[in-house]
Amino acid sequence: MSEAPYFNHAANDTSLASWKRVNQWMDMAELLFSHPAKYFREQLEQNFLQSLFMWIFNTIPQQYLSIHNKYSRKQILYHRFMVLLREHSTQEHQINYYANQLCITPRYLNEVVIQYSNGRTPKQLIDEQLTAELKVQLSNPSLSIMEIAQLFNFQEPANMSRFFKKNTGMSPKEFRSRNKL
């Protein structure tokens, strides 16, 4: 869709047939959603959207789909690792978790990440993300350090404090006192 963000309404048979199909999808949406379903509304919405997206994908010319073949497997793995890291860094602090999610070994994950992150290791990236998230929560005075430690899946507040001090050079309490408004 980013390659061809608009529908070409040129008056030829192919575009007229495509436009007719688009209108059929819109009619189907109107039928499904103009009278809210009593039962299974959420499933109907999800099924409709999934079907629509699959139909749209099947209408994309092959030349545009080949763009995705330009990325290597390692680049795709690195991107997927970064997405997982943003989603799970507050709860998952170990490399093994991310390697398992990607169905690769921790050693291979290490190799991929070092290659595409200017020499930083997965553990360094995990720690950087976790530290940034901790700083955000420590800036919220309504949460105690114990509550933050629990939010971030640390067994003890002392473990979080050691981790934070190792990565920032100051304790969570010092960070809070320096960043008071």
Walkthrough of the structure:
- The radius of gyration is 24 Å and the shape is elongated.
- With 181 residues, it is mostly helical.
- Helix 1 (13-33) runs antiparallel to helix 2, helix 4 (73-88) crosses helix 6 (106-116) and helix 7 packs across helix 9.
- It has helices at residues 13-33, 41-59, 62-65, 73-88, 95-102, 106-116, 122-138, 145-151, 157-168, 172-178.
- It has three domains: 17-69, no CATH class; 73-121; 127-178, Arc Repressor Mutant, subunit A, CATH 1.10.10.60.
Give a short summary of the structure.
With 181 residues, the chain is mainly α. Helices cover 67% and strands 0% of the residues.
Looking at the structure, what is the overall shape?
elongated
Number of contiguous helices: 10
Question: Can you count the beta strands?
Answer: 0
Kindly provide the radius of gyration, computed on alpha-carbon positions and rounded to a whole number of angstroms.
Answer: 24 Å
Question: What's the story with the biggest beta sheet?
Answer: none
**Mean pLDDT reading:** 84
Strand content: under 5%
- Spans where pLDDT lies below 50 across 5 or more residues: none
Indicate how many domains the architecture comprises.
3
Termini distance?
45 Å
Judged by helices, strands and strand pairing, the structural class is: mainly alpha
Order of helices and strands: HHHHHHHHHH
Fraction in helix:
55-70%
